[in-house]
Amino acid sequence: MPRHEFQPGRLLAGLAFTATGVVYAGDAGGLWETPWFAIVPMVVGGLFLAGAAAVVTRAIRHRTPRQNSPDDISPGP
Questions:
Q1: Biggest alpha carbon distance in the chain?
Q2: Do 19 and 42 touch, CB atoms closer than 8 A?
Q3: Is 75 a domain residue?
Q4: Where are the membrane-spanning stretches (predicted)?
């Protein structure tokens, strides 16, 4: 049983920030040249995708009824 619910918005935000870090690490290591302003579309685009994923996830979870787990079932009379 997972300790927390899966949140794809946070996953996408983390991947966007990781990709931004990799791009700038490659620039710092001399593998390629990255303009200073490239961070803006990468971060904003990643946050936009994360927000969209969070909205879609919330809409899906709100629409579908939750199933009771065996622990939630109360004993009969």
A1: 73
A2: yes
A3: no
A4: 35-56
Q: What is the pTM of this model?
A: 0.72
CA-to-CA distance for 74 and 17, rounded, in angstroms? 45
Residue span of the structural domain in which 43 resides:
8-63
Residue 13 and residue 57 in contact, taking contact as beta carbons nearer than 8 Å: no
The length of the chain in residues reads 77
Convert 41-62 to b/e letters by CB count within 10 Å (16 or more is b): ebeeebeebbeebbeeeeeeee
Q: Please indicate, yes or no, if residue 51 is contained in any of the structural domains.
A: yes
Summarised one tens digit per residue, pLDDT across range 6-62 is 899 999 999 999 999 999 999 999 999 999 899 999 999 999 999 999 999 999 888
Give how many domains the chain has, as a whole number. 1
Q: Which is nearest to 34 in space by CA: 44, 42, 46, 26?
A: 26
